[in-house]
Predict the 3D structure of the following.
Amino acid sequence: MRKIIIANWKLNPATLAAAQLLARRIEKVLALISSKRLGRSKKAEMVIAPPFPFLLEVGRILRRSSLGAQDVFWEEKGAYTGAVSPLMLRSLGVRYVIVGHSERRDFAHETDAEINGKIRSALAKGFFVVLCVGEKDRKKENFERFVKQELLLDFQGIPKKYSKKIIIAYEPIWAIGTGKTVRSSDLYEMVMYIRRVLFDIFGKKAAHSIPVLYGGSVNAKNANIFLEVDGVNGLLVGGASLDPEEFLGIVKSVSGV
Ligand code: PGA
């Protein structure tokens, strides 16, 4: 299976000019790798997810990577001030949407019912949906049950036929932006567990073929460790995706350069 690397820029950078510069630098990095014939085409799919206002201009720069959005609304149009619909995103060339990121579950108080609506709507419009799941604290909660609950509620009633367009990002909240990372053995167990839950929801084929990514303090030094874990199909990268040098290191590990 091809590896997927998703750069989640979050609320960065501050200006359009800085976003364009970053996108150009990342494209340069990707060009460097593919000139060694090991780039995107066979081994990895790169996705860049800038903030909404930069999507159009960043999308114009991207050649070797696909455009992603960090969120999407469930309705297509109407009286929803500030919301951004799937059709709007599609018209900008967006192919991937991230849904249910723990930061949005937290500061925007997103519920599983809302996330379910977003997934439904985005899948119906043909997007790849990247659903983020992950526990807050391994010691204080039954983290497997927590992740299972998220998957069951977020995918409630989603038809099996859409499973080809679904990607899971396992992002333990305690590992996001903290410099702490999950142990390989724990990651392996969690990925197997997630696949068992996917089996219950979508059946055997989907349980094997849905890509499961890891996210949480990924950088150029540790990317390899996660990519080597059986069943891990890629990475969701926050902070390190804003630094072209770091990003180069991560892309190199996935391309085996
Ligand atoms: P981080 O963020 O790489 O900065 O930890 C990952 C994410 O939140 O997607």
In short: The beta strands are 3-8, 44-49, 66-69, 96-99, 128-133, 166-170, 212-215, 234-237. The longest strand covers residues 3-8.
